[in-house]
Amino acid sequence: MRKHLEIVPVTGLPEVATGDDLVALVGDGADLRDGDIVSVTSKIVSKAEGRLTHGTRQEAIDAELVRVVAQRGETRIVQTRHGLVMAAAGTDTSNTAPGTVLLLPVDPDESARVLRTGLKERYDVNVGVVITDTLGRPWRNGQTDLAIGAAGVRVVEDLRGTTDSHGNVLAVTEPALADEIASASELVKGKADGVPVAVLRGLEDVVLPAGEHGPGARALVRDAEQDMFSLGTREAARAAVLARSAPGGVREVDPAVWAGLLDEVDDVHLEVGDHTVTVFGDEPVAVGVIAEKLAVLLHAEGYGVTVRTGPGNEATVTFGSRSQ
User: Fold this and answer.
1) Across the strands, what pairs with 75?
2) pLDDT tens track for 304-316
3) Which of 13, 229, 298, 311 lies 20 to 30 Å (CA to CA) from residue 161?
């Protein structure tokens, strides 16, 4: 049982630039001991690695994403090449020169391994390293820091098969230790205090032996195929209705929503009115199918929707005010 946890901010670090030696900055700035965990904000790792690009933020997002999870206006929640699902692909325009965008490290786990190895070689300390970034969470307001890179740390504690204090067998409990470490460290780093590094002491049982880096934070990433919420509500509805699949089984969203409904249906057309869409066609079944698909799409957009059949082979979809 852990009795005590100490979290110490590493203050006085200079502004980091491309090519700077993070091993020296951290090793000289922190009083490190065996068993400590070093939490490093990803921004200084990116700066040291020269992960700056010129252009707009939207262009940077386009270059970094592998799929769009949800989009509202210009705000995009995307999956990056790292497997992370986050707003704006983790790009950042704060504290960078005008016209430049800071990207995430190419391989945050490798960056953590390099830093850990360097600290062992130069300062003879066996520490764990967690690289953090700020993310929002589904169903929760606000943001918190999570681990996007890790080395020498047990990133997950598997409690499955153990029992709780009442003797109940735990079936699914797997605390994300690396994420908990990242969030705890943010309490002393802060978003506007200019403290990008913190040291956590008291978690020696989480730190792996020297030379053993572990699976890294990549082990915390859930594949889209296993994610029950791999798309936003609107995007999931469109993907289901339009039935278009991308390689790997991940659904794509066809932007031509209205036209896409008619791709494989003959002799059906739409008449769009004020808060109504009327579907006409020769086959009543086809008309009904299109009307119901429209209702699903409009509901996903936040509208109240009703569907009623009319005389002949037609159906009218009526939608009211938006609820979101």
Assistant:
1) 72
2) 788 888 777 888 8
3) 229
Q: How far is CA 169 from CA 146, 166, 173, 174, 296, in A?
A: 28, 9, 10, 13, 41
Q: What is the pLDDT of residue 261?
A: 56
Residues in CB range of 15: below 8 A, 6 or more apart? none
| Cβ burial, residue 210 (10 Å; 0-12/13-18/19+) | middle
Residue with tokens 């850990």: 116
Cα dist. 128→79, 110, 281, 310 in Å? 27, 13, 66, 68
Domain 233-322 has CATH 2.60.40: no
- CB-based contacts of 146, cutoff 8 Å, min separation 6: 132, 133, 134, 135, 179, 182, 183, 220
How far apart (Å, rounded) are the C-alpha atoms in residues 301 and 256? Answer: 15
Please check whether residue 97 is in contact with residue 17, taking contact to mean a CB–CB distance below 8 angstroms: no
CA distance 63 to 81: 10
Q: Give the full edge-to-edge strand order of the sheet including 314-322.
A: 268-272, 276-281, 314-322, 303-309
* Structure-token pair, residue 66: 């592998």
Q: Which amino acid is at 322?
A: R
**Which residue spans of the chain are classified as CATH 3.30.1330.100?**
6-51+104-226
